[in-house]
Amino acid sequence: MTTPAAPRHPLASFFRGVGDLGRGFAFWGRLPGAMALGLIPAAIVGALLLGGIITLAVFLGDIVTALTGFADAWSDFFAGIVRFGIGAAILGGAIVLAVVSFTALTLLVGDPFYERIWRSVEGHLGDAPPESDYGFWRSVGDSIGLILRGLVAAVVAGLIGLIPLVGTALGAVVAAFLTGWLLADELTSRALVARGLDAAARRALRKGNRARVLGFGVATQLCFLVPLGAVLAMPAAVAGSTVLARTLLDASAAVGHTDPSTAPAGRRNGA
């Protein structure tokens, strides 16, 4: 009887999740053709969302002024603090929503491209799941669900951003973790659905490996915040999420939490 390995420290698991994204970037050298195709939808959606953020930033002062008429009679110091906080909350919330919307819209628009990346990565790693039609309407439903959850995350981050003094920094941290979880949730879904896991099983698998899933998601989200990072990182995120999903299934099967027949054999995913 094999003794299960001791649980990893959450911080170590978090950085292993970051490493899963790095393994996704490594596929630029292994599958350059498929990865390059993933740049097309990411560039289109990224340009549209960036234009929206820039437009918001240009008119942010006017928007904040219109929303804070109640502070006109206050001293410049206190009115400035309140207006800065509200402005930061609006812009921060919009960025959070844009990051989540970017993933949802890019996966929807570029479904054939990312299907090819996912299938190529599965074939490269071996033990690919049977052919399965993820389906256009499933993609639409997933995208809408992700955007709605992203809206909730944006509102939460925005409200936290209103806290005096520490709100901006605290809101940014909360936004990174909330958005990271949502990104990892969405990106790993294809590989898990293809292996027959329903929503409840996928949720349980991710919660059982929360630190590693967060590490992958937060690293992906931070890459998306770098100029042009979202475009360049999206194909790597799809590849890395495939590696992550296979790793979680392997680990779960090893301790008897998942039917081993649904998990890839061996440890060929580099975990």
Automatic annotation (TrEMBL):
Keywords: Amino-acid biosynthesis, Cell inner membrane, Cell membrane, Membrane, Sulfate transport, Transmembrane, Transmembrane helix, Transport. The chain crosses the membrane at residues 36-61, 81-109, 172-193, 213-238. It is a multi-pass membrane protein. Pfam families: EI24. InterPro entries: CysZ-like, CysZ/EI24. It is found in: Membrane. PANTHER family: SULFATE TRANSPORTER CYSZ (PTHR37468:SF1). This is EI24 domain-containing protein. It comes from Microbacterium aquilitoris.
